[in-house]
Amino acid sequence: MKLILLGAPGAGKGTQAEVICERFNIPTISTGNIIREALKSGTEMGIRAKSFVDAGKLVPDEVVIGIIQERLAKDDCSNGFVLDGFPRTIPQAEALDKMGIAIDKVIDIEVPDEVIVERMSGRRVCESCGASYHLVYNKPDVDGVCSKCGGTLVQRKDDHPDTVKERLKVYHDQTEPLKGYYSKQGKLYVVEGHEDVASTTKRVLAAIEA
Ligand code: AP5
Ligand code: MG
């Protein structure tokens, strides 16, 4: 099964990807996580991406397309995968089609902008393993400590309110047109994502199994 999770920043793509990955035993491929790893380890790609990520802008298409092409060629993708955060632009979607990858479904998680701003301000991520929490909706067992690996929880630099606003603008301008792109291909499934995680998961799984 080859799935794409579409949605605004903070819509809950990463959260739902984790559930899908366990349930169907397929890997999650998150371009955001791959880029953050590269930033942390200071690779050439990381250095190139930093100014874009910090400003809430998209990293250039050719960089991200290269990352995906390399990642999808790995053995663990042979039974399918969940793409979280890719594609983000029409040229990225076209590149995926040109790679000959037949996506089964695109699940679009819809959350109003006001809800997103509130969610992002409460998100905390583990600086070691990248696991994501929320100060109100998804608390770690011990404040400030990752329940999975014991790492320290920090706020993502691009989760500060001004950057979130920029990310939302970029989403509406450059990513939202993908809804039309995949709707024309008959692959788009729209799911309401403004309720709690469990309710959203039910809707996402129903869409996958529809
Ligand atoms: P990326 O990491 O992909 O960021 P994003 O799309 O902006 O999405 P987020 O990770 O912020 O949100 P999410 O939908 O995964 O939400 P989450 O589940 O964490 O990309 C970062 C940057 O990298 C980009 O800005 C760009 O610069 C670059 N980049 C990445 N991919 C790129 C590409 N393809 N092309 C170009 N550039 C690219 O949930 C958010 C919070 O809400 C969490 O705290 C969570 O616990 C909580 N939460 C989740 N669901 C619920 C719920 N139902 N109720 C209450 N709280 C909830
Ligand atoms: Mg994410």
TrEMBL record:
Keyword Cell membrane recorded: no
Catalytic reaction list: AMP + ATP = 2 ADP
Residue stretches making up the Adenylate kinase active site lid domain: 123-158
Region (LID): 122-159
Pathway named in the protein's UniProt entry: Purine metabolism; AMP biosynthesis via salvage pathway; AMP from ADP: step 1/1
GO cellular component terms, A-Z: cytoplasm
InterPro entries attached to this UniProt entry: Adenyl_kin_sub, Adenylat/UMP-CMP_kin, Adenylat_kinase_CS, Adenylate_kinase_lid-dom, P-loop_NTPase
Residue sites binding ATP per the record: 10-15, 123, 132-133, 195
Positions of Zn(2+) binding: 126, 129, 146, 149
Annotated binding of AMP, by residue: 31, 36, 57-59, 85-88, 92, 156, 167
Spans annotated as NMP: 30-59
Keywords recorded for this protein, A-Z: ATP-binding, Cytoplasm, Kinase, Metal-binding, Nucleotide biosynthesis, Nucleotide-binding, Transferase, Zinc
GO biological process: AMP salvage
Top-level taxon in the UniProt lineage: Bacteria
Coiled-coil boundaries: none
One MF annotation (Gene Ontology) recorded for this entry: AMP kinase activity
Compartment(s) where it occurs, according to its Swiss-Prot or TrEMBL record: Cytoplasm
CDD domains named in the record: ADK
Top EC category: transferase
EC nos: 2.7.4.3
Written domain comment of the UniProt record: Consists of three domains, a large central CORE domain and two small peripheral domains, NMPbind and LID, which undergo movements during catalysis. The LID domain closes over the site of phosphoryl transfer upon ATP binding. Assembling and dissambling the active center during each catalytic cycle provides an effective means to prevent ATP hydrolysis. Some bacteria have evolved a zinc-coordinating structure that stabilizes the LID domain.
Family: Belongs to the adenylate kinase family.
PANTHER family: NUCLEOTIDE KINASE
Quaternary structure annotation from Swiss-Prot or TrEMBL: Monomer.
HAMAP family from the UniProt entry: Adenylate_kinase_Adk (MF_00235)
Name of the protein in its database record: Adenylate kinase
Organism of provenance: Caproiciproducens galactitolivorans
